[in-house]
Write a structure and sequence with these properties.
The complex is a heterodimer of chains A (82) and B (263). Chain A has 82 residues and is mainly alpha-helical. Chain A is 91% helix and 0% strand. A two-stranded antiparallel ribbon of chain B has the order 1-2. Classes of the chains: A mainly alpha (82), B mainly alpha (263).
Chain lengths: 82, 263
């Protein structure tokens, strides 16, 4: 029992870095999937219609910018956690 | 077991992992809260470099451009054709000088990260992206009010046409927050967090390389660490250009959305 309590106390002091890592790691899952899907589809579109590549690329960067913001908010949050 | 794993995961004694303290700099001119520190000098340097580059390139323009004029003409052409004309259309041409200046300012501020002797991205201090995002917020609102008038501008933003009347209870608050509050916020966070992350990664890798070089037993591990650091340096140059591009193109998208009402 004392062992468990000691472990919990230790977890409380060392939990913050783990929490910080988790905040960023969990926050990066969605945007990671999203950007992968987005770029994959854009490559497909560019391969199908090379003459539309410029337009697709611009739109792709826009989409990346919006999706990436979520991951970056997670990154900032990891620093805010005390 | 839990603590055992943690002890293993901790950095070895003697290695100080860099924290956000690497972004704090001491005062150079003056003292107290409102002084000019290293970052302040870099901001002025950024502005002077951008102005100087354009003056040097275009003060005596030649019909057949060479060297610097050629390079900067490529930048102007890229912003004009790739951003202003493609996103805003022909109404975007008056915005080309502003967009080009912003692109160059952000790019020079970012590229300071990899220049030996400076190695500090100006845009990693949140105040500078926040100021730029505030400027963009004012400009796209002013452009929208000028193009459409205050009433129609707010109406086309807050009450987008083609939505069933009952849904406005849901749509209007979302549009209000996403257009007028979240836009400058995400612009700031995107640029600042990218630069902070890049600077921290470079610091960690180069400090780690130096730490591994200190003991003879760990020198074999220092070689791949150093190679990876150099690769990351190249990656950071790419990120610098890309973030300047993304900030500029998002500015163009916001201006375009304000100038062209939704139908």
């Amino acid at each position: 029992m004392t062992h468990l309590l000691g472990l919990l106390a230790a977890a409380e002091t060392v939990g913050t870095p783990i929490g910080k890592g988790l905040v960023y790691g969990l926050g990066a899952i969605g945007p990671g999937l999203g950007i992968g899907f987005l770029v994959g589809k854009s490559v497909e579109a560019m391969a199908r219609q090379p003459e539309a590549a410029g337009m697709v690329r611009t739109t792709m960067f826009l989409g990346i910018a919006f999706t990436e913001a979520l991951a970056l908010i997670g990154f900032v949050l990891a620093f805010i956690i005390k | 077991m839990f603590t055992g794993i943690l002890a293993f995961a901790k950095p070895p004694a003697g290695f100080e992992a860099p924290t956000t303290d690497v972004f704090k700099t001491a005062c150079v001119i003056g003292h107290g809260t409102y002084c000019v520190n290293r970052v302040g000098i870099y901001i002025f340097a950024t502005a002077i470099i951008v102005v100087g580059l354009f003056l040097a390139a275009f003060s005596k323009p030649k019909l057949v451009p060479r060297g610097l004029q050629n390079a900067l003409e490529a930048v102007v052409e890229f912003v004009r054709n790739g951003i202003a004309l493609e996103v805003i259309g022909t109404e975007g041409l008056p915005w080309v000088p502003f967009l080009t200046t912003m692109f160059m300012f952000i790019f020079v501020g970012n590229i300071f990260e990899v220049i030996p002797g400076i190695q500090f991205p100006v845009n990693s201090r949140t105040a500078i992206p926040a100021f730029l995002a505030g400027l963009v917020w004012i400009l796209f609102n002013v452009a929208g009010v000028r193009a459409q008038g205050l009433g129609p501008y707010l109406k086309s933003n807050l009450f987008p046409p083609g939505v069933p009347k009952a849904l406005y209870i849901l749509v209007t608050p979302i549009e209000l927050v996403s257009t007028f509050i979240l836009r400058p916020f995400t612009l700031t966070v995107r640029l600042a967090a990218n630069m902070i992350a890049g600077h921290l990664i470079l610091t960690i890798f180069f400090l780690g390389t130096a730490y591994l070089l200190a003991k003879p037993a760990t020198i074999p591990f220092a070689v791949p660490a150093f190679l990876l650091s150099v690769l990351l340096l190249g990656f950071e140059i790419l990120v610098s250009v890309l973030q300047a591009y993304i900030f500029t193109i998002l500015t163009a998208v916001y201006i375009s959305g304000a100038v062209h009402p939704e139908h």
